[in-house]
Design goal:
Layout (H helix, E strand, L loop, with lengths): L1 H26 L5 H30 L4 H27 L8 H20 L7
Length: 128
């Protein structure tokens, strides 16, 4: 699981750079500023949580076997898909009803961070 989290986090971060550049160069002239800001919010939160995936992967290597840390990583990945993905879709398609999905992703992010804290708190210390 730790390898999955580290690879997923790194690939997601790379995607953030590409999406940020795409927004700055290709979308800037095609979208109103408020719609572009929605897209950029998706990139920003995806980047934060890409780093979060890498962090969870590193912590999970230290505390191997923690189900809480594995679930934290999965929730973070789901949060990226739902939160950032819905903002990307909303801003590029104009379908406002996609905004209903965004808070679900936000709740996944909150749950992931809480499970990270709980997983470390409940750990038995460093394991080889």
């Amino acid at each position: 699981m730790t390898r999955f989290l580290l690879i997923t986090g790194a690939l997601s971060a790379a995607l953030c750079v590409a999406l940020g550049a795409f927004a700055a160069h290709a979308l800037k002239s095609r979208m109103p500023p408020e719609t572009l800001a929605v897209f950029q919010t998706g990139v920003q939160y995806q980047f934060y949580h890409s780093l979060g995936l890498i962090l969870v992967g590193i912590v999970a290597q230290r505390y191997q076997g923690s189900i809480l840390l594995s679930v934290a990583g999965l929730l973070m990945a789901v949060g990226i898909l739902l939160f950032s993905g819905s903002l990307y879709a909303l801003s590029t398609t104009g379908i406002r009803s996609l905004g209903i999905i965004t808070p679900i992703g936000g709740v996944a992010f909150i749950g992931a961070w809480l499970l990270l804290a709980l997983g470390v708190w409940r750990s038995n210390g460093v394991k080889p």
